[in-house]
Design a protein that fits this description.
The chain has 385 residues and is an alpha/beta fold. Helices cover 39% and strands 18% of the residues. The longest helix is centred in the N-terminal third of the chain and has 21 residues. The N and C termini lie far apart (45 Å). The protein binds the ligand O=C(O)C(=O)C[C@@H](O)[C@H](O)C(=O)O and magnesium ion (2 copies). Its cofactor is Mg(2+).
Length: 385
């Protein structure tokens, strides 16, 4: 089998909060008439420059046309040479590698007539427990709005939430107090996510204040790549500490410094299922736990993560991918399913990722490029409009 063409389509998908996220769908066409699809999810993160998708499509055509898609290892090497790892969380090259790698798994599994699960180690579970994100409070008035979000999502079956904290600690505390008052033990807050916005000492001061309410873990309570800061925080805190993995080098540094208890791994930030499996195995060898992170993907990206997560032995904590529940729409005929706060894998009898593009929906959300509108840094950090 040979790849005969590569096509990219930019998608602008609004969230329920009003914030529009820009994604790129990739299609790999082959001489066997089987196509693969993948997702370069959520380019709407800093830094505020943009990828030219016409040029990217040309680059990927040069790299991939004529290649056998089963050569996943060598194609990943080519991708890494062209889009090298950087020590940065939202490195756009990782998003590009992720889209291509996912599409390779889709096309190869489809060609063999099997599910992606049959390609990457099967399934230890058919569903993954996830939590719904509560975006960062900047103003006190937002507490009431966020309590309303919890009420709505609780009715839909979500009973675990995570909270982005640190811009308005009064509001953060008020939110936790209100949740405790109204829901008692019926709703759980999995994590407080500091998103690397603070130095570890400031994060520790706020964490002490907020953890009088029950939470499972603390995420990213130090500046990016401050491995010692993370460790200092972890040594003071009774709760487990998690950090995203955005490069294998960064993961190694976190292991050397014993910075975390949990690695937050997701294919988008590490450049695909292939790299994410490497990071997950590294975590296992180092005796660390895992949770499945997210950039809030559409259904194609979320399903890829579900296959990856279903084969992990040390997925010890509640995971994060809820993108399809956050956006107003999707681009597939068969959106991924959530029930009772679980993300369900597609039927194992489906082939590839088990996703079918809905071209009507693609046309509805298609955009011409990834250009930035007038969004501010606050909006980008807080995911609100
Ligand atoms: O755990 C995290 O950190 C995130 O989920 C990051 C978010 O910014 C996410 O990427 C989003 O777009 O909401
Ligand atoms: Mg996080
Ligand atoms: Mg994101």
């Amino acid at each position: 089998m040979k790849i005969t063409d590569v096509k990219l389509t930019a998608i602008g998908m609004p969230r329920l909060t009003g914030f529009v996220n820009k994604h790129v769908m990739i299609q790999l066409l082959t001489d066997e008439g089987v196509d693969g699809i993948g997702e370069m999810s959520d380019f709407s993160h800093l830094p505020k420059y943009t990828i030219d998708i016409v040029d990217l499509e040309r680059t990927l055509q040069q790299l991939l046309i004529g290649q056998n898609p089963f050569n996943i290892a060598s194609i990943n090497l080519d991708l890494s040479n062209n889009f090298p790892e950087a020590m940065y969380y939202y490195e756009k090259g990782s998003f590009v590698r992720n889209g291509v790698d996912t599409a390779l798994y889709d096309v190869c599994a489809k060609f063999l007539g099997v599910s992606v699960s049959d390609f990457i180690g099967g399934r230890l579970r058919e569903k993954i427990k996830v939590c719904y994100p509560i975006f960062r409070h900047r103003f006190m008035e937002e507490v009431e709005e966020n309590i309303e979000v919890v009420r709505k999502q609780f009715e839909k079956g979500f009973d675990v939430f995570r909270l982005y904290v640190s811009k308005n600690e009064e509001a953060d505390e008020q939110f936790l107090y209100r949740i405790n008052e109204e829901f008692g033990g019926k709703v759980k807050i999995k994590s407080l996510d500091f998103s690397h916005l603070l130095d570890w000492k400031q994060a520790w001061r706020i964490a002490k204040r907020l953890t009088k309410y029950p939470v499972d873990l603390i995420e990213s309570p130090a500046y990016r790549n401050d491995f010692e800061g993370l460790r200092n925080f972890r040594m003071k805190c009774d709760l487990p500490v998690s950090e995203h993995v955005w490069s294998l080098r960064q993961q190694l540094e976190m292991i050397k410094h014993d910075s975390v208890d949990i690695f937050n791994v997701s294919p988008i930030f590490i450049g695909g299922i292939t790299s994410a499996r490497k990071a997950a195995e590294t975590a296992e060898v180092a005796g660390k736990s895992l949770l499945l992170g997210t950039t809030q993907e559409l259904s194609i990206g979320t399903t890829a993560m579900a296959y990856f997560g279903a084969a992990l032995g040390n997925l010890d904590y509640i995971s994060d991918p809820t993108g399809p529940e956050l956006y107003v729409g999707d681009i597939v005929k068969n959106k991924v399913k959530y029930r009772d706060g679980y993300l369900y894998l597609p039927d194992r009898k489906s082939t590839g990722l088990g996703m079918e593009i809905d071209w009507g929906l693609v046309d509805k959300y298609r955009i011409k490029d990834l250009s930035w509108e007038d969004v501010t840094v606050h909006q980008l950090q807080d995911r609100t409009s």
